[in-house]
């Protein structure tokens, strides 16, 4: 199976939504975020990437350069364990650093696999939020 990592475009919305709604943790109710908001993240304030396997989007990430936020990083449960999340993470973080940011942040469920994924990559919890989320930050050691 061939995996291709490439920059996301608005043409990837259907695949992005399919992956987003397939995950078991950090679920999202349909309609809470619209296409316009995703497109703005992809084209205006940030950039996104997708991983395709045999032409199908199986993972995606979106980083917001205006505020240093990891807006999204999700892998279809059927494609977990293949390194797609790590590749997306590293690509997105590298791009965010090139925008002059010194600290990145995200929120994720306080007791999720995602939190462990980020902490293994150097992210540190800076706050446990009242809604069950944890705020994590990553600092660039080489400004």
Q: Care to give the gist of this entry?
A:
Helices cover 29% and strands 34% of the residues. It has helices at 13-22, 35-45, 84-97, 113-119, and strands at residues 3-7, 46-53, 56-64, 69-75, 103-109, 124-128, 133-139.
Task: Describe this structure as you would to a colleague.
The structure is a single chain. By secondary structure, the protein is an alpha+beta fold. The chain has a domain at 3-101: 3-Layer(aba) Sandwich (Aminopeptidase), CATH 3.40.630.30. Helices cover 29% and strands 34% of the residues. The chain has four helices and seven strands, in the order E-H-H-E-E-E-H-E-H-E-E. The strands form two sheets. The chain has a four-stranded antiparallel beta sheet. A hairpin with a 4-residue loop joins strand 3 and strand 4. The protein is globular and about 40 Å long. The model has no long low-confidence stretch (mean pLDDT 91).
